[in-house]
Amino acid sequence: MPSQPHDHIIPFEESAKSKKEQVAEMFDKIAGKYDFMNRFLSARTDVSWRRKAIKALKQYRPQHILDIATGTGDMAIMAMQMLQPKKITGVDISAQMLEEGRRKIEKLGLSSQIDLQLGDSENLQFADDSFDVVMAAFGVRNFENLEKGLSEMRRVLKPGGRLCIIEFSRPKPAFINSLYQFYMGNIAPQIAKLFHQDKKAYQYLNRSANAFPERKDFTAILSQVGFVQPDYRALTFGMCCIYSATK
Ligand SMILES: C[S@@+](CC[C@H](N)C(=O)[O-])C[C@H]1O[C@@H](n2cnc3c(N)ncnc32)[C@H](O)[C@@H]1O
C-alpha cells in the first residue's frame, strides 16, 4: 500500500477527536452556506465539473446510483436530472448537510427518486454488487481511511459497474498553480470569514487538497483496491480531476 499523507490532514489540529468526527462536525457547521460558498468561491465552476463527470456516465445508462459523501445532494440531483435513473441513494456522515439536501430534493419534487441516508462510506450498509454506478464528488479526500472507503465503493458496485470520482488536484502549469495556491490558501478562507464561515474549514480544504494523491498516484490506488482500467481527466488547468474505473 502507498503511504497516505492525506491521513494526517484533519480540520482542527488541536482537537483530540478522530478525523471522521471532526469532518462530520465541520460540515454540520458549514452546511447552511455550503452551496452558496461553493458557487461563490468557484464562480460556479464546481457546477460545470459535476456536469462533465455526469455526462461521461450517460453511455452506461445506470438505473441504480450511489452517491457517496453526497453532502447537500448536488451531485445526486444533477445525476437524476441528466441521467434519469430509477433511483439514486446518497450517503453522508453529516446530518446537517443531508438536511439541506433533503430540503432541495423535496422542493424539486424528487423525494421518491433520491434517498439521502446518514452513513459512513467506510462501512456501507448495502449488499455487495448493488449499484450500476458509484460516484463521489469532493468526498474521498475527507475519508479517514482512503483505501477502506474505496474498497467499500467497489464492493457495492455491480461487476462491470462504473466508478466516478471528482477530486481536487494541483493545477499545471506552475504559474497557474501559484495563483491558485494563493487564492485557495489566503483569499478563500478570508472570503469565508466575511460570510461568517469557519475560516479553518476553508484552510482545511486547501491543505487536504494539496496533500491528496492526484492523477496517476490516485489511479494507482484505484488499481490496488481492485478497480480495473482506472483513468482520469484533468479539468480547468488541473484544478480538479474526474477519475473513472470499472469493477
Ligand atoms: C466537500 S463535501 C462534498 C459534498 C457533495 N458531494 C458535493 O459535490 O458538493 C464532502 C462531504 O463528504 C462527507 N464525508 C466525509 N467523510 C465521509 C465518510 N466517511 N462517509 C460519508 N460521508 C463523508 C462530508 O460530511 C461532506 O458532506
Q: How many independent structural domains? A: 1
Regions with little confidence, pLDDT below 50 for 5+ residues:
1-5
User: Which small-molecule ligands are present, each listed once?
Assistant: S-adenosylmethionine
* Average predicted local confidence, pLDDT: 92
Structural class: alpha/beta
- The number of distinct β-strands equals 7
Outline the biggest β-sheet.
Answer: 7 strands, mixed
| Share in β-strands | 15-25%
**Briefly, what CATH class?**
Alpha Beta
Instruction: Tell me the radius of gyration.
Output: 17 Å
Task: Estimate the helix proportion, in percent.
Answer: 40-55%
Distance between the termini: 19 Å
Order of helices and strands: HHEHEHEEHEHHHEE
Subunit organisation of the chains = single chain
Shape: globular
Within CATH, the superfamily carries the name Vaccinia Virus protein VP39
**Helical segment tally?**
8
CATH topology: Rossmann fold
Describe the structure.
- There is one protein chain.
- This protein has helices at residues 19-42, 45-55, 74-83, 95-107, 146-156, 174-194, 199-211, 215-224, and strands spanning 64-68, 87-92, 114-118, 131-137, 157-168, 228-235, 240-246.
- Mean pLDDT is 92; it is low at 1-5.
- A seven-stranded mixed β-sheet has the order 3-2-1-4-5-7-6, with helices on both faces.
- Helix 1 packs across helix 4 (95-107) and helix 6 runs antiparallel to helix 7.
- The longest helix is centred in the first third of the chain and has 24 residues, at 19-42.
- A hairpin with a 4-residue loop joins strand 6 and strand 7.
- By secondary structure, it is of the alpha/beta class.
- The structure holds S-adenosylmethionine.
- Residues 20, 23-24, 27, 69-71, 74-75, 91-94, 97, 120-122, 137-139, 142-143 line the site of S-adenosylmethionine (SAM).
